[in-house]
Write a sequence for this structure.
């Protein structure tokens, strides 16, 4: 689990009551991003809208290019670019250039958009927004390959084009997709590298995570590889009334969306009057001292600890706010960064490297003195001392609050442990610390593991013991991190699945120890097993039907994605043959039927109407096989066409009977005509 902390969204809005200029807003935002990098933030994010009275930032990549020129390390994200309003090829080029300028730091968030006025302004039908977004993602992936490519979609078509130069990062920047509808969230799992949302209620985000994982599994992707980006309002002060400082700016930020939904900033209502209930504004925006903001944000980090990479992007600057003097600004940003790092469980932020001396206290915790090198323009070093997992002294200016790391460790939903290498024990290891969560999860007290070095292995499922032991031995020999998923038997007899990750740490005079964390993944494994069982049932049904079931891409050639095994029995072509040659269908069409069948296929793709044709195919052995081909276009929940799904029925016996009957009738008519002529 890796938690990264970002700053944003920066939107460039200036309310009607503010005297700020756009030049001032842009200049001071760049200063704030540079400051965020110096104090340890991992990323800075901007957002896009068009034609608004408050000047909402319309051009994100030029602004990120400016931010890249004044920073060295910090990631530069879009949250989000409204992809349907952009030409994908130009978007690929602009992104690649900014990625080159920044040295590979672009994080590309994309969304479908929603304001009717923006689509009207660009002359793009709003109904096409999802289709244009999906095609844009595919085009970006191809464009960043560095090779020429062609693309034939319903919204965009390119013929043998190339994007040059390519991005600095091989394959291009990571792509994050946003959205709130179930279909949009699953789409992020199918297509993107992560999901981005500003709905940060833990229960709702937990539901989004399940949908993202569902989409990933449907596409045959690994759900745990996807990143979760959460956009969160907040404001931190050392003392005083934080809410009074941000109230007006937050009202404009959130109220603008309600006003746009009501038709503001359109030809019929050419102004913007944002407003929203104060209780709603405060619910969305935790404010106060570092401890108060930490308390508000900690549940979010704890809820998703251990599930995936979490990128928490917090907004600290609101429309119309005066950034104040340089000293006040630095203090506010440093305090916010310290509180956010604490909410992530004290994990070091990206961009820092740590070398350390570690000594163990009597209860298995550590006193660590570490030199943390922070990349800044002055290459300044910070010295941090952490004792008993909880006391931090930061000798750099304006240090953050003291954080009780041990308390955080013992509240995360996982089992944390420390094992010392000890040759005097049967296992070669001795447990010196286990977090109290082990009692709730496995039913055994921490003292039981400390007293019995073999208890961990005794509780492992017999079918997993040899595999996990081999992984442990490999990690010890190679000095690489340990990672394994396995089952354990709880005291009450339940079988639980765990994901176990640990690293070797130098200890004392040449000794070593393991520091690890075990996450209960039983629910995930059960869901995977249920999905696999359902997949087996449906596959068995499909593959035993006396018909060829297939899935094709929505292109004129009906490029094949899947063909059931019955094809080999009927036509002599196996599933592997269809996979190896996506154009096999067009090749084996009977010459007399080819034009008609392909024309009907093109109409099927372009209109989405069902396909129902009778034609002949040439089998591998030269036989002519008559088939009836029926297919429909399958859509996702919001109407985006995904693929064509259909089946081929062998109607050769019927056709041969029809032909035989027709020949008999023809012969009888000829005989009747002959008799009539003789009479």
């Amino acid at each position: 689990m890796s938690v990264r902390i970002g700053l944003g969204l920066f939107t460039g809005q200036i309310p009607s009551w503010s005297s700020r200029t756009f030049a001032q807003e842009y200049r001071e935002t760049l200063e704030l991003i540079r400051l965020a990098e110096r104090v340890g933030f991992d990323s800075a994010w901007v957002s896009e809208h068009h034609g608004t009275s408050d000047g909402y930032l319309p051009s994100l990549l030029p602004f990120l290019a400016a931010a890249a020129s004044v920073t060295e390390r910090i990631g530069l994200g879009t949250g989000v670019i409204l992809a349907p309003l952009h030409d994908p090829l130009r978007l690929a080029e602009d992104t690649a250039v900014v990625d080159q300028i920044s040295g590979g730091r672009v994080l590309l968030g994309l969304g479908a958009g929603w304001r009717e006025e923006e689509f009207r302004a660009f002359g793009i039908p709003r109904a096409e927004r999802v289709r244009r977004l999906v095609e844009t993602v595919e085009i970006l992936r191809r464009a960043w390959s560095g090779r020429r490519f062609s693309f034939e979609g319903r919204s965009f078509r390119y013929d043998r084009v190339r994007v040059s130069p390519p991005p600095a990062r091989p394959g291009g920047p990571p792509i994050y997709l946003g959205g709130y509808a179930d279909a949009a969230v699953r789409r992020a799992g199918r297509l993107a590298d992560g999901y981005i949302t500003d709905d940060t209620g833990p229960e709702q985000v937990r539901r989004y995570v399940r949908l993202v994982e569902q989409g990933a599994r449907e596409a045959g992707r690994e759900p745990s590889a996807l990143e979760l980006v959460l956009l969160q309002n907040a404001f931190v002060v050392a003392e005083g009334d934080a809410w009074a400082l941000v109230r007006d700016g937050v009202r404009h930020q959130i109220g603008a969306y309600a006003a746009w939904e009501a038709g503001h900033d359109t030809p019929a209502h050419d102004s913007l009057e944002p407003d929203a209930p104060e209780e709603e504004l405060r619910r969305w925006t935790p404010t106060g001292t570092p401890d108060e903001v930490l308390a508000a944000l900690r549940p979010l980090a704890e809820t998703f600890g251990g599930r995936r990479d979490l990128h928490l992007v917090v907004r600290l600057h609101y429309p119309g706010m005066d950034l104040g003097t340089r000293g006040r600004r630095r203090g506010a940003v440093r305090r916010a960064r310290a509180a956010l790092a604490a909410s992530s469980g004290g994990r070091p932020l990206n961009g820092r490297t740590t070398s350390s001396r570690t000594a163990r206290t009597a209860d298995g915790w550590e006193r660590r003195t570490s030199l943390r090198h922070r990349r800044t323009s002055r290459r300044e070093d910070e010295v941090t001392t952490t004792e008993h997992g909880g006391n931090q002294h930061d000798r750099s200016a304006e240090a953050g609050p003291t954080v009780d790391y041990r308390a955080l460790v013992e509240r995360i939903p996982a089992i944390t442990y420390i094992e010392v290498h000890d040759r005097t024990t049967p296992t070669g290891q001795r447990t010196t610390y286990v977090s109290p969560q082990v009692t709730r999860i496995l039913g055994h007290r921490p003292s039981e593991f400390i007293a019995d070095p073999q208890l961990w292995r005794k509780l492992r499922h017999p079918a997993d013991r040899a595999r996990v032991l081999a992984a442990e031995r490999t990690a010890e020999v190679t000095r690489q991190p340990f990672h394994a998923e396995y089952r354990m038997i709880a005291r009450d007899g339940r079988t639980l699945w765990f994901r176990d990750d640990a690293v070797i740490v130098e200890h004392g005079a040449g000794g070593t120890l393991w520091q690890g964390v075990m996450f209960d993944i039983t629910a995930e494994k059960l869901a995977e097993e249920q999905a696999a069982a359902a997949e087996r049932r449906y596959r068995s049904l499909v593959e035993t039907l006396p018909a060829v079931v297939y899935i094709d891409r929505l292109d004129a050639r009906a490029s094949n994605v899947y063909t059931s095994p019955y094809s080999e029995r009927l036509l002599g072509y196996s599933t592997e043959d269809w996979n190896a040659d996506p154009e096999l269908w067009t090749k084996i069409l009977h010459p007399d039927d080819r034009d008609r069948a392909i024309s009907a296929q093109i109409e099927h793709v372009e209109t989405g109407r069902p396909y129902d044709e009778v034609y002949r195919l040439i089998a591998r052995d030269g036989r002519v096989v008559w088939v009836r081909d029926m297919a429909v276009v399958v859509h996702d929940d919001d109407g985006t066409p995904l693929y064509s799904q259909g089946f081929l029925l062998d109607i050769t016996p019927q056709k041969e009977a029809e032909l035989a009957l027709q020949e008999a009738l023809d012969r009888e008519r000829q005989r009747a005509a002959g008799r009539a002529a003789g009479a």
Q: What stands out?
A: The two ends are 97 Å apart (CA to CA).
